[in-house]
Design a protein that fits this description.
Strand content: under 5%
Radius of gyration: 25 Å
Largest sheet: none
């Protein structure tokens, strides 16, 4: 946890310094330093959702290819007949 907090401090100082060097404005540097992490957090949330959706789709495609290789319909369990309902283990 200490390393994470230390890196957070380094990030804030770096963001402020770079923005100040570019703009020459303390107000602009302060705004960017504190607004950027908020925006980045929101963007990360949506990025994470899209990534998970992509991973689920990839897993389903892999499962469908595997099932097709064994003559099964996608989602069909091994040893299960095509018209047979899936049962859960007791």
């Amino acid at each position: 946890m200490a390393k994470t907090l230390a890196f957070g401090g380094v990030h804030v100082v770096t963001a402020f310094s770079v923005t100040y060097l570019i703009t020459g404005s303390v107000a602009m540097s302060g705004a960017v330093t504190f607004i950027e992490p908020i925006v980045n957090t929101v963007v990360h949330y949506f990025f994470d959702r899209a990534w998970e959706k992509r991973e689920r789709a990839k897993a389903l495609r892999t499962q469908a290819r595997s099932a097709g290789a064994y003559g099964q319909a996608p989602g069909q369990l091994a040893g299960q007949s095509a018209g047979q309902p899936a049962t859960s283990p007791a």
